[in-house]
Specification:
The protein has 309 residues and is of the alpha/beta class. The protein has 15 helices and twelve strands. The strands form three sheets. It has a four-stranded parallel β-sheet, with helices on both faces. Strands 6-5-7-8 form a four-stranded parallel β-sheet, sandwiched between helices. Strands 10-9-11-12 form a four-stranded parallel β-sheet, covered by helices on one side. Strand 9, helix 11 and strand 10 form a beta-alpha-beta unit. 47% of the residues are buried.
């Protein structure tokens, strides 16, 4: 009961403060449902990147892991970007850094470097282009290089390599702990339980799981697929936050997790109280130097340049 009273207070205050601060709340599909429900913009990494570059409000409150808030600041440098839970980081993004990128370049001077957007800003400063799971194939195919170092996610890199056969790829051995948690044996069991269901899996999953899936899609792609598909049952191979959204958006359809309790604990660190306190005190601001913004912006701009076809 007390939590309900607290949530009612936070919801009321967040609405008041968002107007008072001229703020917009951006939230990733993996956020807790209470955060999804208050978001002005809810989406995947590509959606949020595009919207961050376009928002008219003075303040962006970003509910997502730290690299996402950094990207928002790079794309909207004149805005105040608040990241209410700075400790919410992406373990995969932390598997690569600027020094490692420089070493890879020295070892492969004829290769371009394309980084998944799931990288920290110090990595984005050193690469040629960024991509998301939604546009990775287009960026790799269209970028003017015949040899590509793809980092940090080896599973997404393998997916891109299999689609862009005309180029040579060097794949960095990073991975997403959440999607690696999905096991082929469990997916086989779920498929037997729901033989009519379409299996939609994120390309960050391991190769065996991907091979058992009907379609490999980012979270935005999954939403679009379900919207257009006349079938009613889907097995979803990604973080459970997306399943909560799918069940809200498509109440006439059924969604089953490919693995029980697929949870990104870093995404789930956010609460209404965090959003409220950040807006109230205007703290937890993302601060980046002009040099960092300028160098990172080039790689993000190349994502939009090469990823839209």
């Amino acid at each position: 009961m007390k939590k309900d009273r607290d949530n009612s207070f936070y919801l009321k205050e967040i609405d008041r403060l968002r107007k008072e601060r001229n703020a917009v709340i951006l939230a990733h599909n993996y956020q807790p449902e209470e955060i999804q429900l208050i978001a002005d913009i809810l989406g995947d990494s590509l959606d949020l990147s595009e919207k961050a570059a376009e928002v008219k409000e003075d303040v962006i409150v970003f509910a997502g892991v730290s690299f996402m808030a950094e990207s928002a600041k790079v794309l909207a440098p004149t805005k105040t970007v608040l990241h209410p839970v700075p400790d919410s980081r992406c373990p995969m993004a932390d598997m690569i850094d600027g020094q490692k990128v420089r070493e890879l370049r020295e070892q492969n001077p004829d290769a371009a470097v394309i980084a998944y957007i799931n990288t920290n800003v110090e990595t984005k400063m050193e690469v040629d282009a960024v991509c998301t799971s939604a546009n990775a194939v287009s960026v790799a195919r269209n970028f003017p290089a015949n040899k590509i170092i793809f980092l940090p996610d080896i599973n997404l890199g393998r997916f891109v390599k299999n689609q862009v056969l005309e180029k040579e790829f060097i794949l960095y051995k990073g991975f997403c702990r959440v999607h690696e948690y999905i096991k082929a044996r469990d997916l086989r069991r779920i498929k037997k339980e729901h033989p009519e269901a379409i299996v939609l899996t994120h390309p960050e999953a391991n190769e065996e799981v991907c091979d058992l899936s009907d379609h490999l899609l980012g979270t935005g792609g999954m939403i679009n697929f379900v919207a257009d598909c006349p079938l009613k049952q889907f097995i979803i191979g990604t973080e459970e936050g997306l399943i909560l959204r799918l069940r809200r958006d498509f109440p006439d359809k059924e969604f089953f997790p490919a693995q029980p309790r697929i949870i990104c604990s870093n995404m789930k660190m956010f609460t209404l109280r965090h959003i409220y306190l950040s807006l109230k005190n205007m703290h937890k601001e993302v601060i980046l130097s002009e040099e960092v913004i300028e160098k990172s912006l080039r790689s993000l701009e190349n994502m939009f340049k090469y990823g839209n076809s």
